[in-house]
Amino acid sequence: MGFAFRKEYDVVVAGGGVAGVAAAVASAHRGHRTALVEKQILLGGLATSGLIFIYLPLCDGKGRQVSFGLAAELLHRSQKYSPCDLPQEWGGPQDGFVGFQAEGRYQCIFSPAGFTLALDEILKEAGVELLLDTLVCATRCRESGVVSGLEVENGEGRGWLQARRFVDATGSAALARQAGLPTPTGKNFQTPWILDFGGKTHAFHLTPQIGIQAFGSIEAEECRMGNPLSQDTLTRHVRNTWESCRRFYDQAYATGEDRHSLFPLHLPAMPQFRKIARIQGRKTLEKKEQRQGYPDSVGLYGDWRKPGCVWEIPYEILLPRGLRNVLAAGRCVSADGDAWEALRVIPAAALTGEIAGTAAALSLEKHRMPDALAPNALRKILQTRGFLFRETE
Questions:
Q1: What is the rounded CA–CA span in Å between residue 334 and residue 314?
Q2: The pTM is what?
C-alpha cells in the first residue's frame, strides 16, 4: 500500500508516557536517531493526562535510595514547574510545600501540566524526534520474529516508521498484540481521581485550593467489567468515573458546599486503568519474588506499598517471547499479580524505560539482538548512571 510518509530511525519508541520518554532519552543519549510516537498531544500518560500526579518512592522506605538514573532525574524534573517540594529528609526545604503526608519516603507530587513541559524539555535536550497525535495502527513482523516497521496514522495520513529496534511503552503491549502474540490482561478497580478546586476536600494537594479528589475504590463493579481492552469496558469505566464525580458534587452541594468554591477543574483524558495488558516475556516476575535475586538483574525498585520491600528487575521481563528486536517498558513488562501491581507506577516505569532504551541502543552497537545481549554489558552502562542491581548492595 502507499504511505503518505515514510521515516527511518535507529530506535522507535511507542508510547509517550514516563516509560516511553525515559526509553527514548536513554537511546538518544547514546547517539542513536530515536523517535517517540504518542497518540495524544500530551506527554506523561497516566501521570499527566490521567491526573495521577504522585511520583511514588525511589527508596526502600527505610531511608535508602534504591532507584537511580532517569527515575531520579524525572522526579526532580517533575518539580521544576510545580509548587510542591520533596520531603526535607530527601533534600526538600524545611518549609517546603509537600502537599501530602510523605511518611519519610523519597517521593513527591507535581503539577500534571508542569510535568508535561518538563518531559518535553528533556526530550528536546536529548534530540529525540517527537511524533504527537500519531496512532500506531499495525506492527509488521517477519516470520523470524523481527519487526520491520510500524504503520501509524496522523493528520498527514497513513505512514510507515522503520527502525532496527523498537520499545513498546504503550501501557497495553500494543506492539506485541498487533504482532499476534498473547498479551494477558490485568485486573482493575474503579478508582476515580480528578483535579478539582476546594481546599477542604482533597486527598492530595497541589496548593491549599487545588488538588486530586480520590473517590475511593469500587472493586466489585470493576471486577465485573471484564477485559480492559474492550471498548465496552473502557466506556463504562470512564462513564462510571463521571458518575462518581457527579454524586460527590451533588452530595456536597446538598449539604451546604458552594459551587463557587468547590468544583471540578479537569477530568482525566485517558482511562485510569491500573493494568491493561502486558507482554509474555522470557521471564514473568511473579508474586512473592520481592527480595529474590536474579543473575540478570538490571535494576532495583523499592515497593511503594511496603517499606523494606525491594524488587530486583530481571532483564528477561523486558523481552517479549516471539519478538527479537523489541523491548517492553513500563506497565506492559512481564510481571503478574502482586509484582505487576508493584511495577505499574511512575518510578518503575522510568526505571524500566531507561533500561529498555539503553538495551536497544547497546544491542545496535554490539550488532546483537536484544535477546542475545549479555546482561553484564548492559549493567556496565547502567552502573555509570548509579544503578544498583542486588537487593543486598
A1: 10
A2: 0.95
